[in-house]
Backbone:
């Protein structure tokens, strides 16, 4: 597959041109290495290779000497150094911090585990020193989807979309789940029972997009609910699942759901981890479609980087809205419907939300229509291909 420009690339270039360094976090095979190869660099070190990794683990100060050897007395720009999978050698970040603080180089650091970066290094990766970006699988803006069902079943990882035959995609996704999720994630978890964690992984994938009940999961697996919470934190730290918090502020409602949801970062990986096939019932298709739109909203939020959050809104005894975009207290409610004919009844929860939250000026129903439809003064039905227009 030829290089398909990632929408986050221009923001990274802008950041580097401001003499800032970049931390690019994303799960494996989301395209981080392919993206960084688009940048003209002076030094590239990949810690994926064991011999290279061991060399810098033993002598992290080697990087200091290598970078300083690149600095010419009259050089107009700082050298650009790329460190790939930097979480594998977290001790190197102390050297990186020193070089950045002394203005010796700019860096692009890539990583697939925020957990190891946080736990294994004392370096403070704060804004102002390093600007963090999130790398997702392809959004539909970057790689338009001809077949919605393919995205629901096989996801959006670049390497999977490059495979033409569906049986081969299935094989490659299974290999991803086995080698990456089951081996690397479990190894990082340092859990006492790998069997319990494997069972949790399957259930977490099945429950993706649903409201989490830690106690129910703990009973099914036979571990404490605090252990289940720790397992979810591992998935979040390893960028496999993203936590979605509910909107709980209301002047009217006393029982708004306070438990969170988790979304697996890719629907193909989710399906294989859950051991599901490609012929689900209709109600499951609706749930997958809801997750797909939630992921697209998240991806657009990460690309544009303006600080919005994705939430959901649910009164157990009343209305609920699938997704709510929260821009510093200004809300945009989004309902997702597996229909090609949106009706007035599909609007009722949006209308309730818009009436209760005065900062919410408009709402959307995302569905399978061919063109936009103005359903009311404040509510528009959107084709799923145009979901990026919401953020």
Residues:
């Amino acid at each position: 597959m030829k290089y398909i420009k990632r929408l986050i690339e221009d923001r990274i270039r802008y950041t580097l041109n401001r003499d800032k360094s970049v931390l690019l976090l994303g799960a494996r095979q989301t395209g981080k290495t392919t993206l960084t190869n688009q940048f003209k660099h002076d030094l590239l070190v990949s810690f994926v290779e064991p011999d290279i990794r061991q060399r810098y683990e033993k002598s992290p100060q080697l990087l200091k000497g290598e970078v300083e050897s690149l600095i010419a007395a009259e050089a107009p720009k700082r050298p650009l150094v790329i460190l790939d999978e930097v979480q594998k050698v977290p001790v190197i970040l102390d050297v990186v911090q020193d070089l950045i603080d002394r203005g010796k180089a700019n860096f692009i650091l890539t990583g697939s585990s925020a957990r190891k970066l946080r736990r294994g290094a004392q370096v403070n990766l704060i804004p102002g020193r390093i600007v963090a970006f999130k790398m997702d699988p392809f959004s539909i803006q970057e790689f338009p989807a001809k077949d919605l069902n393919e995205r629901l079943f096989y996801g959006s990882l670049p390497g999977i979309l490059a495979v033409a035959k569906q049986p081969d995609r299935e094989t490659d996704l299974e290999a991803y789940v086995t080698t990456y999720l089951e081996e690397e994630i479990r190894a990082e978890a340092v859990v006492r029972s790998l069997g319990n964690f494997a069972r949790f992984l399957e259930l977490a994938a099945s429950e993706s997009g649903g409201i989490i009940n830690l106690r129910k999961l703990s009973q099914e697996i036979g571990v404490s609910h605090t252990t289940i919470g720790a397992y979810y934190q591992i998935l979040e730290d390893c960028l496999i699942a993203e936590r979605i918090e509910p909107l709980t502020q209301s002047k009217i409602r006393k029982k708004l759901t306070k438990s969170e949801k988790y979304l697996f970062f890719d629907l193909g990986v989710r399906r294989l981890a859950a051991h599901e096939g490609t012929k689900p019932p209709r109600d499951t298709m609706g749930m997958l479609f809801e997750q797909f739109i939630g992921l697209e909203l998240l991806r657009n939020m990460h690309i544009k980087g303006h600080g919005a959050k994705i939430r959901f809104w649910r009164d157990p005894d009343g209305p609920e809205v699938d997704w709510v975009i929260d821009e510093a207290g200004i809300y945009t409610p989004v309902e997702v419907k597996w229909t090609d004919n949106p009706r007035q009844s599909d609007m009722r929860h949006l209308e309730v939300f818009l009436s209760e939250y005065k900062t919410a000026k408009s709402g959307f129903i995302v569905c399978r229509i061919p063109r936009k439809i103005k359903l009311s003064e404040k509510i528009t039905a959107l084709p799923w291909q145009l979901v990026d227009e919401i953020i």
In short: The domain at 148-389 is CATH 1.10.10.10 (Arc Repressor Mutant, subunit A).
